[in-house]
Task: inverse folding
C-alpha cells in the first residue's frame, strides 16, 4: 500500500520537472570580498538579463551574498570561490551585503 | 557574541519550527522521541559532513552543486511529508479518537515515523551546515574568538530551541480532537513550501525555467531576511519574490496531497468498530 501511495506523487513531480531547460549565460561578473568589503563596489551589471556572479572570498571568515531586494545569493566559505545566478533585474540600484558582516560590507549593485 | 547568537538563531529557526510541527503531529505515538532524535542527530552529522565537503559539493553540476544538492534533499523531505499526510488521512481519525476518548497512546503499527525522521534530518542538515560554516569561519579568521563563538553559538541554538518549544506547546493547546487536523494542515503547507523552495533552488542553478521571474514582489512589506519572514517561509513557504514555477509547484503539491489523501485515505469502509478491533490485534 505504501509503495503505491508514494509512487504517484513522484510521477507527478517528475513530470513537472521534465521541462528542464538550461539557458546559456555569458553575462559573468567577478566579485571579491576582502576585509568584509566587496570589490568592485558598486558592482554594475546589465539590466533585464540573467547574470552569473563569481564571488571570491579572500577573508578567512564565511561570507554570504545577501540582498533584501534581489533574490538569490550564496554562502562562500573563507578562502573559497562560488558562483551563482541573479536576475533578470530591472534597471535600478540595489543594496547587497555579506549576511554575516552586514554593516561593514553593505554596498550597491547597479543594473542598467 | 550577541550578533553570532542572532545569526545562529536565524539559521536554526527554520529547523526548530519543523521539529516542533513534527513533534505535535506525532503526539502520543510511541517511540517518537527516538525517531526525532535519530532525525536530529542524523541532521547534525549530515550538516557537519556537508560543511566539510562544501567545496566538493559546490563543484558538482558545473558549480551549481550546492543548489542541486539542496533541491534533492528538499524534494526528499516533500515526499516524506506527503507520505505522512496521506497516511494520516487514513489513520488520523482513529488516532485522535483514541487519544481523545481513552487518553492512551496509540499503537504505532505502520506509522511512517522514519519518513518524518528524514524530514527533520533534512531540515537540520540544511540549516546546520550553514551554521557550521559560519561558526567555523569565525574561528578560522581569529582563533582567539573560539570562546565567544561557542558561547554565541550555544546561545543561538538555545534561543532557537525555545522558539521551537513555544510553537510546540502552542500547538498542544489545540483541542486534542482537532490536533491532527491542524498538524496535518501544517504539514501539507510545510510540504508545499518545501516544494516551492526545491524548484527555487533549481531555478537559481539555472536548471529550470522560472515561468515568470518575479510573479510578485512583496519585499516592501516583508523582506526575506527578517525573522518573521523566515518563520512564514517555513510555515507557509513565504518568499517575497516568487518565480512562477515556485507558485506552480506550491499549488501542485497541495493539490496532489489533498487528492491522494482523498483517494487513499478513505477510512475502512467496513466501519470503525471493525477497524478498531483490527488495530487492537495488530
Result:
Amino acid at each position: 500500500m505504501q509503495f503505491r501511495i508514494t509512487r504517484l506523487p513522484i510521477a507527478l513531480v517528475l513530470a513537472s520537472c521534465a521541462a528542464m531547460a538550461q539557458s546559456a549565460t555569458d553575462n559573468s561578473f567577478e566579485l571579491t570580498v576582502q576585509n568584509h568589503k566587496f570589490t568592485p563596489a558598486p558592482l554594475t551589471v546589465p539590466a533585464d538579463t540573467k547574470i552569473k556572479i563569481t564571488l571570491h572570498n579572500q577573508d578567512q571568515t564565511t561570507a554570504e551574498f545577501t540582498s533584501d531586494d534581489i533574490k538569490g545569493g550564496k554562502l562562500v566559505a573563507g578562502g573559497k570561490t562560488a558562483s551563482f545566478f541573479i536576475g533578470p533585474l530591472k534597471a535600478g540600484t540595489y543594496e547587497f551585503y555579506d549576511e554575516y558582516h552586514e554593516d561593514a560590507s553593505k554596498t550597491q549593485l547597479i543594473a542598467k | 557574541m550577541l550578533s553570532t547568537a542572532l545569526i545562529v538563531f536565524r539559521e536554526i529557526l527554520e529547523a526548530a519550527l519543523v521539529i516542533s510541527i513534527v513533534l505535535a503531529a506525532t503526539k502520543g505515538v510511541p517511540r517518537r522521541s527516538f525517531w526525532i532524535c535519530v532525525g536530529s542527530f542524523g541532521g547534525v552529522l549530515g550538516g557537519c559532513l556537508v560543511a566539510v565537503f562544501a567545496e566538493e559539493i559546490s563543484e558538482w553540476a558545473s558549480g551549481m552543486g550546492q543548489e542541486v544538492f539542496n533541491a534533492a534533499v528538499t524534494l526528499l523531505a516533500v515526499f516524506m511529508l506527503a507520505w505522512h499526510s496521506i497516511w494520516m488521512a487514513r489513520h488520523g481519525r482513529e488516532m485522535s479518537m483514541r487519544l481523545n476518548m481513552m487518553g492512551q497512546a496509540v499503537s504505532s503499527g505502520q506509522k511512517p515515523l522514519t519518513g518524518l525522521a528524514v524530514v527533520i534530518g533534512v531540515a537540520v542538515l540544511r540549516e546546520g551546515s550553514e551554521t557550521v560554516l559560519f561558526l567555523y569561519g569565525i574561528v578560522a579568521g581569529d582563533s582567539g574568538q573560539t570562546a565567544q563563538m561557542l558561547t554565541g553559538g550555544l546561545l543561538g541554538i538555545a534561543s532557537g530551541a525555545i522558539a521551537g518549544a513555544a510553537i510546540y506547546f502552542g500547538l498542544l493547546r489545540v483541542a486534542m480532537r482537532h490536533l491532527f487536523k491542524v498538524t496535518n494542515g501544517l504539514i501539507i503547507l510545510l510540504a508545499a513550501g518545501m516544494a516551492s523552495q526545491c524548484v527555487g533552488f533549481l531555478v537559481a542553478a539555472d536548471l529550470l525555467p522560472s515561468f515568470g521571474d518575479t510573479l510578485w514582489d512583496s519585499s516592501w512589506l516583508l523582506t526575506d531576511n527578517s525573522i518573521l519572514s523566515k518563520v512564514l517561509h517555513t510555515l507557509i513557504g513565504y518568499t517575497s519574490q516568487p518565480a512562477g514555477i515556485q507558485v506552480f509547484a506550491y499549488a501542485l503539491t497541495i493539490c496532489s496531497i489533498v487528492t491522494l489523501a482523498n483517494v487513499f485515505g478513505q477510512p475502512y469502509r467496513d466501519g470503525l468498530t471493525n477497524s478498531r478491533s483490527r488495530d487492537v490485534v495488530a
In short: Chain B has one domain: 2-281. Chain B touches chain A through 50 residues (CB under 8 Å). Residues 106 and 205 of chain B are 44 Å apart (CA to CA).
